[in-house]
Amino acid sequence: MIPRHLLIGMTVLLAAALGLSLYAWHMRSTVASVPIASTDTRPLAPPVAGPTERVTLYVAYDADGSLRAQPALIPLPSGRQQRAEELLRAVLSIYLDKSSPHVLGSGADVRTVFLVDPGVAVIDLNSAFADTHRSGVLVEELTVASLIHTISANTPGILKVKILVDGKERETLAGHADLSSFYDVTAVNQLATQLQPAQ
Amino acid sequence: MRWTKLSRSIGASRSAGVPPAVQSASRAPDILPGGLFLIFTLTVMSAILLSAAPPEKHLAVFSVAANYSLPLVQREGRAYVGLLELLEPLGKVTAKSEGPRWRLRYNNNAEGVFQIGKTHARVQGRDADLSGRFLVENNRGLVPVASLPSLLPRFLGGPVTLHEASARLFIGSVGTHFTAALSAENPPRLVFHFTAPVNPSVATEPGALRMTFSREPLVAPASPTLTFGNRTIPSAIYSESNGAAVVTVNAAIPVMATFSSDGRTITISSTSTAASASSGSQNANPPASGTAPNTGVPNGVPNGSVPNSSAPTLPGQPAQALPGTPPATPASTRRYFAVVDASHGGDDHGETLSATLLEKDVTIALARSLRQELESRGIPTLVLRDSDANLTLDQRAIFANTDHAAIYIAVHAASNGHGVRVYTALLPFGGDDRGTFRNWSTAQHASLSLSQSAAAAVAAEFQRRQIPVRTLTAPLRPLNNVLGPAIAVEVAPQGSDSSQLTAPDYQQLVTSAVATAIAATRDQLGAAQ
Fold first, then answer.
1. Does the residue B304 lie in any domain?
2. B373 and B512 assigned to the same domain
3. Which of A75, B48, B100, B406 could be a cystine partner for B525, CB 3.0 to 4.6 Å?
4. Cis-peptide into B54, omega within 30 deg
5. Is the pTM of this model over 0.80?
């Protein structure tokens, strides 16, 4: 003979277990139905801390295939490497605008810039930069010249520049501009002169 | 009438109630010759039918992992192949039957569930159309060959291309492409360049030489019929059948095939020319009619008479330094004054100029037009890519350097901008030469001033014809890897309509200007050559 108080206790426990199970089932279905928010895989750049400085950006214009000097006021950090990154991001912010004279694909970004002595700069672009870039000799050349001339004109001492994509070497930017070798800054500066708009 | 009567008489005897055994016995002497005749006829018919039976059909499979062939079976009017057997050489694959279901697991990460008699399957949790019923015979799961392009990528995770009519299946990017160029010599030589070593069987017959590629993933050129506008070797035809690719060279004279560059080059030439080229030969024989596998020597020429095949054409393994002295040009190839390179090709489409227009298609048309314009001015010209072939930048530079052309012209097309841009190399940093050896990345250095002169002459000709033109340097390979003068011409439409790039008039306007400028600087460029 099972004592009565035990029967009551067992019944209460079973009812509690059943109730908790139903509650857990309800919570699980609620969680499953919550949509997963789309995520931007690009790294979030930290806010720039530093005084605003006047710099010269070299901006590509597809309409006449030219590279034009454009003064800008941007906050620049004190570190040489961080300054170079901010310079390139300032150029990219122009290109990512829909009304840009030289539009780049959405998501294009500079992952990082390494300045290695003596006189070597390594620009690491993200894959969206290269994958969404338009193909063509001139259009790719304008991008490369814009990046290299901007960084070398505002960062003294750079002699050669290597461009990587996602930290890896890539043969071309979008089928034409060579990324397999180091760019000679002197040669790119001469190219920038050739690309100046006709007077 | 006579046979009718005989039938009737036999029928009459049967109806008379005579036992068949008695009938047979009584007619034995008459039937014996007829029986022998029947046996003889059956034997002959069987022999004829067996000899005329179609060859067993196979599916040739080309992949990075392995090249192999599988037997095909005909069921329900379709060609079927065993799925397990197809995937086995490519990775770890298991299959098991569960009643009407047949499960296949590939590399432990892709599973397909097939149902006998159903035209759909579940692969990786998604429906896949089989374009025919799934069959199981002796525990072998059979799928229609036509379903492979949609079915296999689900398992393999990469692109699959099926040439259904010829039963050739390409898994991944494994195609071997080729170009064909005819020299202007007399008698002419037809030179095939392949992007990978090949080893076809070669057969000669009156008026044609046939190369059968059964082990190589050879893919068709842009046009299956290549015409050369020459009476001696008028054309070559590409075809595919039963797992093999066949290139048939039509020739008005007896020709033979010579292999060089580790099987990457095949030269078709007159038997007499090839015999004279092999100067050391005491007994050079004309090629025997028939089939001979490639043994690395000219078909029909003894071992001792192998022409020089030591050209340093090793695409894919570019030397970091090139000899400063000219490398030995193969005896089977001639020296061209101009090498025109139709940029891009194969998997590399270049710029997508419009929804239906790719840069690689425009460049090949421009290159052919430029060859015609140059040759009409007496300038021997080689088009590097004369079909929809994959050529790496290193291969292009190696071909140009090996041919020692006086000028290398890369042709590009663009939708951006107006008119024409003429480029010379923007040399990369550093790249020191070592003695007589040139650095690969700056091989152009010594010829840069000549390249700039040629570019200036081309630009001046465009200006004279009132076509908008710019002259620039560009980081554009392989300009910097070419030893001799090298320029690139990027053609854009004069207005905003990209379709102008395909207009023959505009193409001819551009190419004739380039050809005129090259002809005008011929002496200067030729002296350097």
1. no
2. yes
3. B406
4. no
5. no
Q: How far is CA B170 from CA B47, B152, B174, B176, B301, in A?
A: 37, 11, 7, 11, 35
Token pair belonging to B279: 């100067």
In angstroms, the CA B331 to CA B274 distance is 9
Q: CA-CA distance, A163 to A122, in Å (whole number)?
A: 6
A-chain residues within 8 Å CB-CB of B350? 135, 175
Residue B275 token pair: 């015999």
| Pair B225, B125 in one domain | no
Residue range B446-474, pLDDT digits in tens: 899 999 999 999 999 999 999 999 999 99
Cβ distance B477 to A144 less than 8 Å, yes or no, reads no
Name the one residue in this structure whose structure tokens are 């596998």. Answer: B293
Tokens of B399: 């071909």
Summarised one tens digit per residue, pLDDT across range B106-127 is 887 788 999 989 998 988 888 8
Domain that holds residue A130: 52-194
Chain B positions touching A61 (Cβ under 8 A) are none
Instruction: List, for residues B326-346, the tens digit of each pLDDT value.
Output: 333 343 445 688 999 999 988
Which of A142, A173, A181, A195 is the best residue to mutate to test the B interface, defined by the most B CB atoms within 10 Å of its own CB? A181
CA distance linking residue B377 with residue B12, whole number of Å: 92
Full residue range of the structural domain in which residue B130 is found: 58-171
A160/B429 CB distance under 8 A: yes
Backbone angles phi, psi at B383, to 5 degrees: -95, 120
Question: Does a structural domain hold residue B341?
Answer: yes
ipTM of the complex: 0.76
